[in-house]
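Batch 3, record 17
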Amino acid sequence: DTGVSQDPRHKITKRGQNVTFRCDPISEHNRLYWYRQTLGQGPEFLTYFQNEAQLEKSRLLSDRFSAERPKGSFSTLEIQRTEQGDSAMYLCASSRLGQNTYTFGSGTRLTVV
Amino acid sequence: KQEVTQIPAALSVPEGENLVLNCSFTDSAIYNLQWFRQDPGKGLTSLLLIQSSQREQTSGRLNASLDKSSGRSTLYIAASQPGDSATYLCAVSLEGKLIFGQGTELSVKP
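Prediction for the assembled complex:
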C-alpha cells in the first residue's frame, strides 16, 4: 500500500463546469476526510466518512458540493457549477478508527478560470 | 468554536539556529494536538502527536510541548538545516476531525 492517492493532481476548469475528484485511502483505514486549503491558510475541514457513512459535513460544504464513499473504500468529491472562489487545494486523508494518526494525500489543486 | 492560531506566520533563520514555533487554541477540550510539515504544493506529513494527557513528545531534532490549561503548544527545532524549510502546521483533534492553524512558513538559509 503506497499511501493515500488523489486524482487528478491538477485540474483547470471554466467557471460553471462540474468537477469530480477521487481519493483512494489506505486500504485498512475506515475513516476518510476531505479538507480544503487556500493559499497561505491551513486546511479547513469539509467532511468525513466512517466506512460508507458520511458522519459530518462542514457549513463550508455548500449545496454545490457532494461527497460519496459508496463501498467504504474510495471516495469522490464533486463540485457543481464551479465558482472562482472554489479554487484551492483539496486534500484527502485517512485514518483507522481508534488511532490518532492521519495519512494525507498529495492533494488535487483546482483552478477555476 | 475552536480556533487555532500560529505565530509567527513566517520565519527566516540562518542554518544552525535553534527556533521555536508557537500554536495556541481557544478550547482546551482537545483529544490531542499534532504538528505537520507541508512542502510547497504537497500534502501534509505528520511530525509529532501529543495526546491530551501528555506534556511533550520528541523526535530527533524536534520537540513539541503541550499546555492544555493555557491553550498553547510549541514546536522546538534544534540546529536547523536548509532541509527544514517548509510550512509547519499545528492541528487539534476534536470530535473526529482536525482543526488547523494557518501555519508558519519557515525558511532556513545556508
